[in-house]
């Protein structure tokens, strides 16, 4: 894939995430996608398992979104995005936030993309 094609997939994912378009997000990920949120103990393999978690999280943090995209770089089959993830907890999230608290995480998201699909997704931060 070209750099432009890699960036198009990564940007589409972020836009779908921000608009809560789970149906389109699913089409951007391979069936056996591996998702890891380092430093938070989350590791999932398989699109259905990943999206089961996303649907459950929407009830607790419905306004979650990425913002402040400061840098995005594509090379080989990888896209790196430096940005901020933000949300407001609607319920207590032990070890993370109390109900009503704002959450901000500075992240580096690394997407490995093959044949137009995200096959590996890592968040560091």
TrEMBL record:
GO terms for biological process: polyketide metabolic process. It comes from Acrocarpospora pleiomorpha. This is SnoaL-like domain-containing protein. The lineage of its organism: Bacteria, Bacillati, Actinomycetota, Actinomycetes, Streptosporangiales. Coiled coil: none annotated. PROSITE patterns: PUA (PS50890). It holds the Pfam family SnoaL.
């Amino acid at each position: 894939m070209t750099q432009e094609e890699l960036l198009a997939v990564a940007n589409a994912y972020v836009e779908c995430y921000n608009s809560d378009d789970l149906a389109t997000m699913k089409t951007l990920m391979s069936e056996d996608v591996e998702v890891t949120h380092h430093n938070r103990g989350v590791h999932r393999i398989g699109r259905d398992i990943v999206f089961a978690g996303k649907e459950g999280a929407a009830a607790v943090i419905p306004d979650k979104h990425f913002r402040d995209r400061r840098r995005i770089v594509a090379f080989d089959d990888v896209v790196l995005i430096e940005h901020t993830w933000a949300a407001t907890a609607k319920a207590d999230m032990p070890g993370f936030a109390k109900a009503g608290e704002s959450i901000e995480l500075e992240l580096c998201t690394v997407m490995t993309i093959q044949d137009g699909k995200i096959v590996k997704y890592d968040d560091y931060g």
